[in-house]
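Quarterly update, task 2.4: flavin-adenine dinucleotide-bound model.
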Amino acid sequence: MGLMLACEVALHDVPVVVLERLPEIEWRPKAEGITGRAVDIMDRRGLMVGVAETPITPPTAEQRARIAAGERRPDSLHPKAFPGARHFASMFLLRPESPDLLVPQQLLEEDLARHAEELGVEVRRGHTVTGFTQDDDRVRLDVDGPDGPYRLEAEWLAGCDGGRSMVRKLSGIAFPGTDGITTGYRAFAEIDDPDFHLPGWFRKDRGLLVYEEGPPRFITLEFDGPPENRDAPITAEEFQESLRRLSGTKVTVTEVKKITRFTDNARQAETYRSGRVLLVGDAAHVHSHWSGPGLRLGLGDAVNVGWKLAAVARGWCGEDLLDTYTSERHPIGVQTLEIQRASIALMRPGPHVDALRRLLKELLLRDEANRQLTALVDDLHISYDMGDPSPAGPLVGRYSPDLRLRRSDGTVRVAELQRTGRALLLDLAADPGLRALAEPWSDRVDVITADCDDAPADALLIRPDGFVAWSTPADPASLTGALTRWFGPPAGTA
Ligand SMILES: Cc1cc2nc3c(=O)[nH]c(=O)nc-3n(C[C@H](O)[C@H](O)[C@H](O)COP(=O)(O)OP(=O)(O)OC[C@H]3O[C@@H](n4cnc5c(N)ncnc54)[C@H](O)[C@@H]3O)c2cc1C
């Protein structure tokens, strides 16, 4: 998330340095893709564009039936088999109209690194932050670099340093939550007997077993508590034991190519800001990674706080703007942790959970239930409480649709216009008064006059993170209040 946040800040010409302890991107199994709102975030910054614009083909009727049948079928129903399919607690859902981008996390990181370089972000690899102090004006970091230790001063520090965040610990922000109850492995490995088990996703007496062929990929999940020592090196033997316990076979692991061990502790920082220190991504929240919420949540954090941090650093806005980061994003984290705990509970082995799953699967055959859960899983439901919406319009706090806008120079999508990271005022009813009202903010807000067939309002003010800050039919005079609230006083009046 560090790279994403750095890009968000750099889009507004604010200098930023990324300190990363790893000398290069680490290729151990992590996220295998992003879905829903996370793909949209990428699209709105022009990231992973070639892949993201691959059209999503709705599943055929036969595929729909197979997805609906879920794990009752012995054949593999991995969601990747069908574009648009998702899983929740290894029960398959369908949301063909919501995009997915099935690429390893490392490719996203590579694309972000390229983007960061283009934006002039200084990325220092092999530099470990070992401590910091802060006062009212600055943060002072102790860094261990390839040429030895040094000090670095900055106005702000964003801890994007993962679930065991040193920044979070040193800032004294509490991290309450629940301990893990599972131990799992995700591995690319070779085994002596490729027929040891049917390929697919399977509920077992002790947990879950996933086996996919060529190249052989495994996920195991057992409900015997968290790993005894999460830092201990992972051995082929412990993974083999897990495979044997779940499959009931004597399979032998002959080679482990890549492997990760995981659990499901669910914790969230009490606040995402302490003075000049912010927390973003896993540093702010950890949870099980089933259904892949980690990157989506972290990317959502980064695009929420990036432009705010830049606005404060540029002197456009006061520091209180940064408090809306916690007030908007913390509740989303709470919801995600809830969903992830529910998902783990639904994967527990045993006849009681079997019964619960059967019941839930019946419900999920109903379109409405399926749509609601997939919207939750894909973060499509998110809206922010931006205070009383009545003066600023009914769409306030909601995510702006990716409207197709017709202008004299052609058609353009809102997502394409947002690639600059600037706010947009969409004038969809050719109201010259709006342009005049927004003119004093022209250094921060682009006014776009266009026609749109499915416009939800005559005019919308869209923040850089895609959320609506003002819309008609609110009184146009209230636009000035919204512009000031989110982007500061007009140029020259601060
Ligand atoms: C097995 C597995 C499968 C997963 N599957 C999915 C999935 O399918 N979908 C999904 O969305 N998510 C998944 N996740 C979760 C996802 O990988 C994380 O949510 C995501 O990596 C969080 O990004 P982050 O930048 O916040 O933290 P991290 O990726 O942990 O990055 C933190 C970075 O900070 C660096 N760092 C730490 N301390 C310091 C320091 N003191 N100084 C300098 N640098 C430091 C680290 O080297 C690291 O590069 C999975 C995770 C695992 C382990």
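Highlight for this quarter: Residues 1, 19-22, 29-32, 105, 128-129, 160-162, 166, 186, 260, 262, 281-283, 289, 292-296, 298 surround flavin-adenine dinucleotide (CB under 6 Å).
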